[in-house]
Amino acid sequence: MKLIAVAAIGLLAASLAGHAADPDLARSLAAGCTGCHGTEGRAVPGAGFDSLAGFDQARMLQKLADFKSGSRPATVMHQIVKGYSDEQLALIAAYFAAQR
Amino acid sequence: MFTLGRRAFLKAGLAATTLAALDVHAQSLPFPAAGRVVIVGAGFAGATCARYLRLWSGGKVQVTLVERRPALISCPLSNLVLAGTQAIDRLTLSYDALSDRWGVRLIRDEVTDFDIERRLVRLAGGEQLPYDRLVLAPGIDFLWEELPALAESAAREHILHAWKAGPQTLSLRRQLLAMPDGGLFVLTIPKVPYRCPPGPYERACLVADYFKRHKPRSKVIILDANDDVVSKKALFVKAWQELYPGLIEYRPGSELKDVDLRERAAVLDFDRQRADVLNVIPPQRAGSIASRAGIKLLNQRWAEVDWLSMAATGAPGVHVIGDAVFPAPTMPKSAHMANQHGKLAAAAILRGLAGEPPGALPMLTNTCYSFVDPEHAIHVSSVHRYDAASRTLQPVPGAGGVSSVRNEAEGKFAWAWARNIWADTLL
């Protein structure tokens, strides 16, 4: 799983035209989430926000898509997720899926 | 393979309990050139930058963090101390993990001067710190010269700002406790930009909450130098009307010009307002350290940076982060944004030390919670994306927003946010 997720980060990063030069792109994008969801996706246990580390990539992407469409209720995430392209969200999801 | 190796290493590094263990792992890995980074100021921006430099370099980059305070006292949530529902101890956060877990060299001292050409920082204690990159995270200082009566520091022991959480917060709480029922609490707000745009309006709510419970004949008067409520307007106005009817009076376009110490009055252009407790949030600029380092300040107030790297204009090897930065369009001076600046700078510094350019498309998020009473909160969120044409971060259209209504769930999320960002900054 980890290998696949890491490989996916590489492929996605390379596929984003103009961003291939930044090997840290996925990590930097994911760093936008970690103030609330914990360093490398490990949130403070019991504090009330989801840990993202090791979260299945496909499930996370579905969740993010549902936030974006409004089909999943949220207080903040439906607003934040609209700031990111689907490609960026895929990178972020792959990054967190690769964390353990 | 490189990514995997680094991941495996980082995992080992995180599990390690000693710095020695971290270094052993780091040596065998193809990491960017080691370097020495000196960070001045350990608020949300500086501490996050230090922590992420160590994390992302696998302990390879040496980080020295200079801070004069013994602990970080969280400005976020500190208005709850004024309401009397939280002790400041709960907002007082240790720096120990930065040194013990992350191997940051923490020096409790002040900077006396910089030698930007020779890349040296001198400390009051006499030590000289050579660096490859310097990060300034000095927060804000106050423009006391714009309020003549408060130019003397003795006057400022009575007329409080409580805009840096700590002893001032406790002193203001004591003034509120000592105030008789029927008294006037007058809060002055400077023109934007200032630290924490929604903070003054939250403070008005929480002081009114205290009055409602304990001194119901008292009143809050907000003298705002701005022409309107600058953050979460509809939600705050609704809270004032519904939760505190008759307790909060809002006066826009009321810029404080001076203070009459004898009468304890706010002096405006054509008016004055007497107070029982006068709380002045003064106009602000970058912490004075920024100007002493010789970096360019816009309007003589805020540091101009290259948003790809947070590098200071006109000072090679120097980065500025946090509230001291001239804000990008609609970007607030918030703890959340300071934490984000810290990571952006850390990533760019590591790339720079390896002789590589920074990433081409920084993106930052922001979420700020405000309490309208001790249990109910509202938020504002935004996403900021680098725009090559304007060479700054621009808010992403259609993203971000505010709460639909004040609610208890977000009162809990405000604490969840705080506990997580404290950890992401310090633990």
Describe this protein's structure.
The complex is a heterodimer of chains A (100) and B (427). Chain A has helices spanning 2-15, 25-30, 34-37, 57-69, 77-80, 86-97. Chain A is mainly alpha-helical and 100 residues long. Chain A has one domain (2-98): Cytochrome Bc1 Complex, Chain D, domain 2. In chain A, helix 4 (57-69) runs antiparallel to helix 6. Chain A is globular and about 35 Å long. With 427 residues, chain B is an alpha/beta fold. Chain B contains eleven helices and 27 strands. A five-stranded parallel β-sheet of chain B has the order 5-2-1-9-23, with helices on one face. In chain B, helix 3 runs parallel beside helix 10, helix 3 packs across helix 11 (408-426) and helix 7 packs parallel to helix 8. Chain B is globular and about 65 Å long. The interface between A and B is large, with 40 and 48 residues.
How are the elements arranged and paired?
The complex is a heterodimer of chains A (100) and B (427).
Chain A: H1 2-15, H2 25-30, H3 34-37, H4 57-69, H5 77-80, H6 86-97
Helix pairs in contact in A: 1-6, 4-6
Chain B: H1 2-15, H2 19-27, E1 36-40, H3 44-56, E2 62-67, E3 72-73, H4 79-83, E4 92-93, H5 96-100, E5 105-108, E6 111-115, E7 120-123, E8 128-130, E9 133-136, E10 140-142, H6 167-178, E11 184-189, H7 199-214, E12 219-224, H8 233-243, E13 248-251, E14 258-260, E15 265-267, E16 272-274, E17 277-280, E18 284-286, H9 288-292, E19 297-298, E20 302-303, E21 305-306, E22 311-312, E23 318-320, H10 335-353, E24 363-371, E25 377-387, E26 392-395, E27 401-402, H11 408-426
Parallel strand pairs in B: 1-2, 1-9, 2-5, 9-23, 11-12, 11-17, 12-13
Antiparallel strand pairs in B: 3-4, 6-7, 7-8, 10-18, 14-15, 15-16, 19-20, 21-22, 24-25, 25-26, 25-27
